[in-house]
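RECORD TYPE: inverse folding
INPUT: structure tokens
STRUCTURE:
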């Protein structure tokens, strides 16, 4: 990859540092998409030994790139995102990925297809961790930053993503316990 191509890719990815998410940090400021992606990748790294038959390097790559489309559209919370929003993000991201030099563009396109199809264990691990990271962040954020629907959402979100893994089911249950305690204490 040429130096200019490399820098152009980084300039697009840098937008995620300023693209805020719906959720707040424990200090009360909105987290960035880049912060979410970083911690998601850290989660995959920390859990790599729990999935000895999975290509965790592939999961890490998914974690790092999964929200690049938000560099073009911004973050739209899952409970507000419409099909039209999803199509727009996929179109803009797809055009950008297609413009990337080989083999980077081809690999990224393949990873995005794999994440969308969720047929591989790696894609299922990634998708589960993506949802769990959001729940963990909500539990860390001040309760005053939660929208009304998040009380129920934090109790059920990502349940459908963790069923294939005892480790992820246990993590989901621990997160749910934290949610119950947070709501009970009114933090």
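DESIGNED SEQUENCE:
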């Amino acid at each position: 990859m040429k130096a200019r191509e490399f820098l152009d890719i980084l300039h697009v990815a840098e937008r995620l540092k300023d693209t805020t998410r719906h959720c707040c940090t424990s200090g009360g400021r909105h987290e960035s998409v880049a912060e979410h992606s970083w911690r998601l990748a850290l989660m995959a790294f920390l859990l790599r030994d729990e999935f000895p038959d999975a290509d965790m390097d592939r999961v890490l790559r998914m974690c790092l790139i999964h929200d690049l489309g938000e560099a073009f559209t911004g973050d739209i919370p899952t409970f507000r995102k419409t099909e039209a929003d999803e199509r727009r993000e996929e179109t803009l991201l797809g055009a950008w990925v297609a413009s990337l030099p080989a083999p980077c563009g081809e690999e990224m396109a393949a990873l995005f297809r794999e994440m969308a199809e969720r047929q591989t264990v790696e894609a299922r691990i990634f998708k589960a961790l993506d949802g769990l990271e959001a729940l963990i962040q909500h539990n860390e954020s001040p309760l005053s930053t939660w929208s009304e629907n998040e009380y129920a959402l934090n109790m059920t979100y990502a349940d459908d993503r963790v069923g294939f893994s005892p480790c992820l089911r246990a993590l989901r249950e621990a997160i749910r316990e934290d949610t119950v305690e947070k709501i009970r204490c009114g933090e």
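NOTES: The CA atoms of residues 69 and 90 lie 7 Å apart.
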